[in-house]
Amino acid sequence: MFDNIAHSYDFLNHFFTLGIDRGWRRKMIRMIAGSNPKKILDVATGTGDVAIMMAKMLKPEKITGLDLSAGMLAIGKEKIKKAALENTITLQQGDSEKLPFEEGAFDAVTVAFGVRNFEDLRKGLSEMHRVTRVGGEVAILEFSMPHNRIFNFLYKIYTKYLMPVIGKFTSGDKAAYSYLFESVQQFPHGQTFINILREVGFRESVARPLFGGVCTIYKSIK
Prior knowledge:
Elements: H1 2-16, H2 20-33, E1 39-43, H3 49-58, E2 62-67, H4 70-82, E3 89-93, E4 106-112, H5 121-131, E5 132-143, H6 149-171, H7 174-186, H8 191-199, E6 203-210, E7 215-221
Helix pairs in contact: 1-4, 1-6, 2-3, 6-7
């Protein structure tokens, strides 16, 4: 599915959010900036937006981006080359639930709009916990549901009906954007997600809702 929409993925992300998604990503990155991480893993990196932002904002020694979609990674590699960040960022194909890295290999792990796509959420989070060093941080940016009833209703109309139509017109794949609504509805956001983070071993987990609860940043420590 992500291979099919790779060519229009970045454009539609920014279009659907009026560009606000860039600010959301920057806020997630700032939440780990204080620990000055040198080795960072970006899970479900897609076309590398977060990896590129982190390279510019945090100046780490190495960023590894991992994603299952070869189509998304191909576009990401071109973006990294254009930004002259090949020495800092490496993208590779892999399964987020079977991370090909040693225990404690990274100072920080990030995921932007990717954990709701895990087939086994706890397994994916457990893998992220495994590859984070003791004391290292994990930051997760994911869609959630607005608390305000009116905003919640409008948000559902927008994501359930308008986005699939626009997505089909632009990317040719209506199902991919219908999936967004379905996956957000099923995702255990807020305190429920924090409880899962604690179950797999993370501590000091906090949630920071953004834009009325449309999305949330979760930060945890191993």
